[in-house]
Amino acid sequence: MPIHLQAASAGLIQYLSPTPVPAPYAVAFSKDCAKQLGIQDDLSHPELLSLLAGNQTHYQNKQWQTYAMAYSGHQFGVWAGQLGDGRAIYLGDWRQYEVQLKGAGPTDYSRRGDGRAVLRSSIREFLCSEAMYHLGIPTSRALAVVGSDLPVRRETIETAAVCTRVAPSFLRIGHIEHYGHNDMQKELENTLDYLIAHHYPEVATKPYPYLALLEAIAMRTGQLAAQWQAVGFCHGVLNTDNTSLLGLTLDYGPFGFLDQFDREHICNHSDEQGRYSYHRQPDILQWNLYCLASAMLLPLKKQLQLDEEAAIERIKSSLDVYAKTYRSAFIDLYRQKLGFQTAHPEDLALIEQLLQLMHHERLDYTLFFRELSEGRQYDAQPSEALLAWLALYQKRIELENMAQDQRLAQMQTINPKYVLRNHLAQNAIERAQAKDFREVARLLKILENPYEEQSGAKDYALPPPADHPPICVSCSS
Ligand code: AMP
Ligand code: MG
Predict the structure, then answer these.
(1) Ligand 1 environment, Cβ below 6 A
(2) Are residues 286 and 303 in the same domain?
(3) Ligand 2 mean position to 242 CA, how many Å?
(4) Which of 232, 327, 395, 398 has the largest CB neighbor count within 10 A?
(5) What's the total number of domains in the chain?
(6) SS3 of 476, please?
């Protein structure tokens, strides 16, 4: 049974239509995502524009039954109770993907929110989803942004937009927590079974499928965490309700790519304690997995046929797979970033030393690795410490059995030339706010090929100018 019908049977779904917006207009469209969905039209097609604005629910002779779903979650480490799709309305399944309109009006789960998303945050979500996808990092994707001059109040008055996003499933840890917390064991097991059948079929034949499912989710999450760290991505709001059960990057809000490397970087100005700072992300995801495991405790206990204490011990040791996966993916990714084909015991120390140095000298994260992959020295006047590290690196490289140009070519396939730096997004947003959407399209095009140097795109690979005003990104979106 589709997951939304299961949720419907538990009363955890609201069937509703999106709230229409006045005079919708095309802001951005991903042809590549459309191809994945088998959509041939673009936003110049009035029926598609209207569908993705939330102004009608039929398209190409098909009527969509649109709905929103409830979930719960821990926000900033504290149980927040019921949340849900407060402004994301499912259009339904398109091929094997779930399609949602984010910002399509209030639902039963909006709490006090207006159900809208502003143009600024919608462009950020659109560009970053597609950028992450093309970087090869598991993520939800984005099909389109449709704008409207409908005013929306945030810190200031902005205008509304609807972002169409796409994922194999938007299920979050928060869905499982909702069932666990409310003692809805039947729905809980149904959802776990659904996950196994549709997304983790390899665990179905294991002796304890729910435990194997938990381990498989933990492994995907560990891999994701390593990929974020290696590319210098900060999510910004890693609440359990924003943590995917499929190991996807989900719910783009106040995210940021590192410019200057600062391990303690906090990209979300609402995160005063730095709970979600860059270097804490791997631990936070582990914490979120413990929330997931604790929500799954009853079905796990039942399957394991153990008493509570023994079950908890067993589950804890299963979750060790998270840290193991993370550590091995981390070192593997950095070896690739540095161009090592072989593994040597001293590699980890060399990586750690580099990150320490980059942190102290605030080197630009993306640029440093890219210059290294292009056989250039990052800094015209390198510090003593950097020179010393480069000498060690040179020695380590000599242990590799590969021609330099081949090594550099491989490094360029993992060290991106272009990432969605905040100032690039901001520039595209400001032009879009003035109704010029060409910069969004141009940036999308560049980010669709992040590892390849593109002609005329030199500036897009550069850090923000030194005099660039800091960009304040908060939860408000
Ligand atoms: P977030 O912090 O974006 O992950 O959202 C947390 C919860 O608040 C989710 O249930 C969202 O659907 C809901 N929410 C966030 N912003 C709005 C909004 N503007 N209107 C209605 N619900 C919202
Ligand atoms: Mg969210």
Answers:
(1) 83-87, 106, 109-110, 113-116, 237, 241-242, 251, 253, 475
(2) yes
(3) 5
(4) 232
(5) 3
(6) coil
Q: How many CB atoms lie within 10 A of CB 391?
A: 10
**Distance between CA 319 and CA 50 in Å, rounded?**
45
Expressed in percent and rounded to 5, the helix, strand and coil fractions of the chain are: 45, 15, 40
Pairing of strands 256-257, 233-234: antiparallel
Q: Which of 85, 241, 251, 364 is catalytic?
A: 241
Element (H, E) at 428: helix 422-433
Instruction: Show which of 364, 390, 411 is a domain's final residue.
Output: 411
List b or e across 157-191, with b for residues whose CB sees 16 or more CB atoms inside 10 angstroms: ebbbbbbbbbbbbbbbbbbbbbbbbbebeebbbbb
Domain that holds residue 392: 338-411
pLDDT computed for residue 380 by the predictor: 74
Shortest-distance Cα residue to atom 17 of ligand 1: 113
Query: Can you list the residues of the chain whose pLDDT is less than 50?
Result: none
Would you say residue 460 lies in a domain? no
Q: Check residue 230 and give its pLDDT.
A: 98
Residue 19 C-alpha to ligand 1 middle, in angstroms? Answer: 16
| pTM (global) more than 0.85 | yes
One domain for residues 182 and 330: yes
C-alpha 183/C-alpha 84 separation (Å) is 18
Residue 269 domain flag = yes
